[in-house]
Amino acid sequence: MLLLLAALSFWIERSVQIPANGMLNVQSEPEGIMENFDALRTDLTGKPHYRLSAQKLKHYAGSRRTELEHPRFVQLDVEAGEVSVEAQLATVSPDGNQVDLRGNVVMERAARAGQSAMSLRTAQLQVFPEQDLMRAPGAVHVQDDTINVRAGSMEYDTKRRVIKLTGRVQVRYIPGKG
Q: Is 44 within the bounds of a domain?
């Protein structure tokens, strides 16, 4: 009788943990929520490299997923100039090496000697902060004082300030400026 009771208890426990479809339940409630999140990453010498902030951060333990509401990413570089990105939402990879920004993404590059300020608009932007790299897998609109560009996708080396545009690229030069 005790053996039957133990087996029944084990079966009930397993059926509660594993749904009928056989897949484990993914946690839908965040493990932690932080408002006014702000993190600064520095290099080994203590020099600021980038800052990631958001109105709200949600972390889900089961999937190790981190979501940000109204995120702002700023690459801090005295020599190359500041590059900032804002969006409606973002997810951070479990290892922290990729930030995927979505929804009305706006990137702005600060002006510096010989180069005007630049803005970029897209629906999605993937940021690889440790590699000083940003990728827009979809359509982009880039504008500064002298050009207006539309392209199918973009890759931006923020350290060297080199933009690689792919897909159908349309450029309109704005004379008399710059």
A: yes
Q: Which domain holds residue 66?
A: 31-173
In a domain, 5, yes or no: no
Q: Would you state the pLDDT for residue 105?
A: 97
Neighbours of 37 (CB within 10 A): 17
**pLDDT exceeds cutoff 80 at 146:** yes
Residue 2 is assigned to a structural domain of this protein: no
Query: Do residues 155 and 134 touch, judged by C-beta distance below 8 A?
Result: yes
| CATH number of the CATH domain containing 41 | 2.60.450.10
pLDDT digits (tens, 9 = 90+) for 63-100: 778 999 999 999 888 777 788 999 999 999 988 899 99
pTM listed for this prediction: 0.78
pLDDT at residue 62 in the model: 74
E strand spans, the chain: 32-42, 48-60, 65-75, 83-86, 89-92, 99-109, 118-128, 133-136, 140-143, 147-151, 153-157, 162-166, 170-173
Please give the Cα distance from 102 to 89 (Å, whole number): 5
Report if residue 6 sits inside a domain: no
Count of domains forming the chain: 1
